[in-house]
Amino acid sequence: MFHSSKQYLLYNLFQPHATDLRTLCISSYRLSHTVFYRASHVQSSVIMFLRNLYRNTVNLSIRNYSANKCKTKVPKILITGGLGQLGVECARYLRCKYGKDNVILSDIIKPTEEIVNDGPYIFVDILDFKGLQKVVVNHGVDWLIHFSALLSAIGEQNVPLAVRVNIEGVHNVIELAKQYKLRLFVPSTIGAFGPDSPRNPTPNVTVQRPRTIYGVSKVHAELLGEYYYHKFGLDFRCLRFPGVISSDPPGGGTTDYAIAVFHDVLRKGTYQCYLKPDTRLPMMHVRDALRALSEFLDAPNDKLVRRVYNVTSMSFTPEELTAAMSKHIPDFKITYQPDSRQDIADSWPQVFDDSEARRDWNWKPEVDLENLVTLMIKEVKEKIATNGKLPS
Ligand SMILES: NC(=O)c1ccc[n+]([C@@H]2O[C@H](COP(=O)([O-])OP(=O)(O)OC[C@H]3O[C@@H](n4cnc5c(N)ncnc54)[C@H](O)[C@@H]3O)[C@@H](O)[C@H]2O)c1
Q: Using a 6 Å cutoff on CB, does residue 86 contact ligand 1?
């Protein structure tokens, strides 16, 4: 028998079944209706107190439930431009982490049978806003990794198309990411710097005056992303990658020589390099690049001082790379015939300063030049054995 509502509350608080405040409030609120409400002497203020406590606690528990759910929910990820050098490997990496069906590859290219067997693949032209919107809605996309682009050397050969794909395409994905509250990752590049930038080392924040349409479009993406973050709270994340080295065919960038040299040397024993032997550029094995991307996407927002970070693993010249290769492959010949890509390389960073990424979200490269050469020889040999041909 309880003589007051306070007595009842105190009693319940010490009952073993009152495991949380919500249970207590639900039971006390119900009882307040059945016992106290009907009793004429119960003060209405007590009922109001219990009613509000019940409502607030239920609301609180709903909010907590949502927050916990978000924390543990596996994100649904869409990769645009996914059949390029980075996309296929990226999908494999993220599918291991988040499950095969949670990572959707997309591109405008017809996929191989292997790609189709690997996991979900759909056609997405990033210039088609409505089509992209339909995919985001129908597949319940949470994170968008935007890889579609025309790279530095290819971009210079078709500037109007580069403007469309690299600039208009970013307008589409950023607007969608804002509308549907997606986490948006857009890679940038060492090509976002130019001849006026300090080249050794190139810090995270410095002058950016690139001289390629590729670089201009990447600076545009960086600035637009930061603007949307500040103005609309968009969870925009961007890493400036150096040349990424993998055994897959490169997409027409200035650092591609560091991939082609392995394919040519292992197949023909010779390679003609389009850069001078002493051209120093920052580089990274794809394994480090994908780990950086994944760790950065996972990093809590409050750790991120910036939305755009430099990342790198090493810097080398064609001469230094081939010297490291010669420890594993005794006999091959390199010739040098610099072309227009030399001018691009000469305007880019030589050594990339990624200390801010290391400080803010603990970025740390693992693959150095020796490891890179060992990995590439193994991986390219496997590719040649499977395909029997050079990358196109
Ligand atoms: N590979 C590197 O070394 C490197 C370095 C720094 C930054 N990045 C950036 O990473 C991203 C991926 O690079 P990558 O090397 O895989 O590029 P890639 O050139 O190999 O692939 C780009 C893909 O975009 C697709 N694409 C072109 N137009 C499209 C359209 N309208 N709609 C949809 N897709 C379209 C192409 O079909 C292609 O498969 C790019 O944004 C690039 O700028 C790459």
A: yes
